[in-house]
Design a protein that fits this description.
This protein is mainly α. It is built from four helices and three strands, in the order E-E-H-H-H-H-E. The protein binds zinc ion (2 copies).
Length: 151
């Protein structure tokens, strides 16, 4: 196999690469199967078709199972989220990745507005926009947020 850090051929059982001193799979610059150059975010080697292994699976993703929303790359715009929630309550939150929260805002907002004869419609509308903006800002600054994190 090849060192994923420097591309040197290394023994299958080697703890560290003898050329660079790094654990052979602790890199993202070369394919461990054929030694071809790979890029940081690549998952499959374009030369041999093998799945690249290693520590570098820190890719940006929305992971519903952990209940966290991770920042996307490029980051989603807080302004777009605010505008979306301005038009339809909760859509901005769904856009940002807080799907469930957005749906609850949407349905809950309508129900609460109806139940209060529209008295709460304006405060909810404003709160949802502020929420979308602040959550968007956190994600934009690279900070993960909880599925149910508010403001
Ligand atoms: Zn190496
Ligand atoms: Zn390869």
């Amino acid at each position: 196999m090849y060192c994923r850090n420097c591309g040197a051929a290394v023994n299958e059982k080697a703890e560290v690469c003898m050329s660079c001193g790094v654990r052979p799979l602790n890199g993202n610059k070369f394919c461990q199967e054929c030694g071809a150059e790979t890029s940081e975010k690549q998952e499959i080697c374009t030369k041999c078709g093998c799945r690249l292994v290693g520590a570098g699976s820190s890719g940006v993703k929305i992971d519903g199972s952990s209940g966290m929303v991770y920042p996307s790359d490029p980051p989603k715009s807080p302004t777009t989220a605010t505008l979306l929630s301005c038009f339809i309550t909760g859509i901005g939150q769904i856009y940002l990745g807080q799907t469930l929260k957005g749906i609850v805002w949407l349905i809950g907002g309508i129900l609460l507005s109806l139940a209060t004869g529209g008295i709460l419609a304006l405060p909810i509308w404003i709160a949802v926009m502020v929420d979308a903006y602040r959550i968007g800002k956190k994600l934009e600054s690279g900070q993960p947020v909880g599925q149910w994190e508010f403001f």
